[in-house]
Design goal:
This protein has one domain: Rossmann fold, CATH 3.40.50.620. 47% of the residues lie in helices and 18% in strands.
């Protein structure tokens, strides 16, 4: 079995957190090429547009690529397994933070295996210092004026702060 081992790490990344980056870094060592797949997923009502999220993720992975990793960032809006097939992936990377993530991820991996048994799902446990981080909590803390710097890069924190300030100004203008 020769050839390049391509992995796909899918997510909404709204925004990308230090926990996501920990998984990206570790997954990039398991694959010859890693594709971080940013889901359009408008149904989740993302704070950032797809293009903004792709750009934030690209900026975050740049230093890893500069050190020799081969990480691409792409948006996708179709079935994950179809996207994985289209990029020649043999593995889907999923991060697990807690037992509560496991049941959903286990079911998803089972469904994906039925769709394409040739693509394996690999779970990476979140590092202990990142287990509690979620994009949803980061957005809530930031929206309420809390310090998000321990959970995201300074670049992502700036984007979030700017977005919340703009939303607050829009709200005030509407009063």
């Amino acid at each position: 079995m020769g050839g390049e081992r391509v992995g796909v790490y899918p997510g909404t990344f709204d925004p990308i957190t230090n926990g996501h980056m920990d998984i990206v870094q570790r997954a990039s060592r398991l694959c010859d090429r890693l594709i971080v797949a940013v889901a359009r997923n408008a149904g989740k009502g993302p704070l950032f547009s797809t293009d903004e999220r792709v750009e934030l993720v690209r900026t975050e992975v740049e230093p890893l690529n500069a050190k020799g990793a081969r990480i691409e960032v792409r948006a996708f809006d179709n079935l994950l397994m179809h996207f994985a097939e289209s990029v020649g992936a043999s593995v889907i990377i999923r991060g697990l933070r807690a037992v509560s993530d496991f049941e959903y991820e286990f079911q998803m991996a089972g469904m994906n295996a039925k769709i394409n048994p040739g693509i394996e799902t690999v779970f990476l446990m979140a590092s202990d210092r990142h287990q509690f981080i979620s994009s949803r909590f980061v957005k809530e803390i930031g929206r309420l004026g809390g310090d998000i710097s321990p959970f995201v890069s300074s670049q992502v924190a700036r984007h979030l702060t700017h977005r919340f300030a703009r939303a607050q100004a829009d709200e005030s203008a509407g009063d």
